[in-house]
Every structure is written in C-alpha cells, then in structure tokens.
C-alpha cells in the first residue's frame, strides 16, 4: 500500500504577492484615512490581535451596506471597531449600528476609536457574550456582519435569520481559514463551527447564499454572503 503524498508546504512566495497586490489596491483606491489609521495604531498599542478586516475588505463591507441602503446594522465581533467604522460610515444620519463584543478591553479600545472617528452617535457597543446580547435586540437589521468566535457561527446564523427581514444581507467573515474547512477531522472547534455553518446553509431555504475565497494581507480566507429571501 502506498502512503499518501504529504501536502507540499504552503507557497509563501504567492502570499508575498497577495500582500503586494493588496498594497497596490489599497494605495490606489483607499486614500489616507486618519480615523482608520488611528484605530489600527490604537489597536496595536493595546496589543489587540490584528485580525480586523483589511482596508479593501472594510471598504467592500461599506459598499455592501450602501447597496443595501442599510439603516440598521448589526455586527457580531467588534475587536477595535475597525470594521465597525467602515460599516457605520455607510449609515444615513438617522441610522444605527449595534456591535457585540465579548471582551471589555476590546470594547474600550473600540469605543475610543469610534469616538475619534466621529461615529459614536451611530454606534452602540454591547459588551458580553454575543449569545447573551442577541436575545435583547430589536429586529430587524438590514445588514448583519458575523465576525466573532467561529465555533458559534451556526448559532449566529439562527439569530441573524431571526433578526432580519426579506432583503437583509448577512455577511460572514473567515469562512475558509487557509482551506482548513475541507478537513472534517480538524480539531479546532472554530473550523468545526464553520463546517456546521455551511451544512446548515446547504439546507436553509430562507436565504440565497454564496461564499467567496479571499487572499491578501490577511492571508487566505473567505466571506459568505447571504441574502434573506
Ligand atoms: N470585526 C472586527 C474583527 C473582530 S475579531 C474587524 O474586522 O475589525 C473577533 C472579535 O470577536 C474579538 O474581538 C473577540 O473578542 C470577539 N468575540 C469572541 N467571542 C465572542 C463572543 N462569544 N461574543 C462576542 N464577541 C466575541
Ligand atoms: C480570527 C478571527 C477573525 O475575525 C479574523 O478575521 C481572523 C482570525 C481568529 O480568531 O483567529
Ligand atoms: Mg474576521
């Protein structure tokens, strides 16, 4: 019996190109932005992990929110509020964004970043496990961005469906994780949660869903995009 060939190491040179291309895109399409840059600097100062969406992904979320004409946005997973700022900037003056964050430390950094961006009148941060905050929210939201603990993605999907209306957009970050989602035996509960999320989606008649792989500064990952029917 022949042993399976071990997978080759990941091609680092390609990742360098991914980042270089992201830098090119950002350089051309995303002008210097003091509030966003200050947020990333404050995150770094506070030793938050740099797992925010990339600038071009943040702008993509912003465009989606404007396309959806979102006035009420829900975000699950605030970190330092980088994606929050991109999304809140898409809101009209009477809009509102609620963002859920487990860590009081992350929430404190996010609050300062959102203040500095001049968006605190539009944003409410609820601190605690998202599954405890979600039952207290008033539906519906026009756009829901799920970007917290991936092991709870199946639960967040259920909540997003409860808190949406036909036409709402649900966007889920990090659904590829370097391709780890292919492995049914991956020991990570997060990978397991993403796989369960895809399995739930496969039999979910309430949404029209797709997913896109992404490469760039943040490595190889992906976004799922769900439109509520
Ligand atoms: N959306 C952010 C990144 C979020 S990182 C951005 O792109 O800028 C994921 C965040 O989810 C972390 O801050 C983490 O503390 C938070 N988180 C993890 N588990 C959570 C839970 N159960 N409830 C709420 N937030 C959670
Ligand atoms: C992780 C979380 C994220 O939201 C992300 O964009 C990247 C990584 C993480 O928990 O590892
Ligand atoms: Mg993410």
Structure description:
The protein has about 230 residues and is of the alpha/beta class. The protein has a single domain, classed as 3-Layer(aba) Sandwich (Rossmann fold), CATH 3.40.50.150. The chain is about 40% helix and about 20% strand. It contains 8 helices and 7 strands. The chain has helices spanning about 10-30, 35-45, 55-65, 80-90, 105-115, 130-135, 155-160, 190-200; strands at about 70-75, 95-100, 125, 140-145, 165-175, 205-215, 220-229. A 7-stranded mixed beta sheet has the order 3-2-1-4-5-7-6, sandwiched between helices. β4, α7 and β5 (about 165-175) form a beta-alpha-beta unit. The radius of gyration is 18 Å and the shape is globular. The model has no long low-confidence stretch (mean pLDDT about 95).
Share of residues in strands = 15-25%
Low-confidence stretches: none
Counted by DSSP, the helix tally is: 8
Bound chemical compounds: S-adenosyl-L-homocysteine, 3,4-dihydroxybenzoic acid, magnesium ion
Mean pLDDT: 95
Helix content: 25-40%
Task: Return the string of H and E elements.
Answer: HHHEHEHEHEHEHEE
Structural class: alpha/beta
- What is the CATH T-level topology? Rossmann fold
CATH 4th-level superfamily: Vaccinia Virus protein VP39
What integer value in Å does the Rg equal?
18 Å
CATH architecture: 3-Layer(aba) Sandwich
Spatial arrangement of strands, main beta sheet: 3-2-1-4-5-7-6
Largest sheet: 7 strands, mixed
Structure summary, number of beta strands: 7
Number of domains: 1
The separation of the N and C termini measures 50 Å
Overall geometry comes to globular
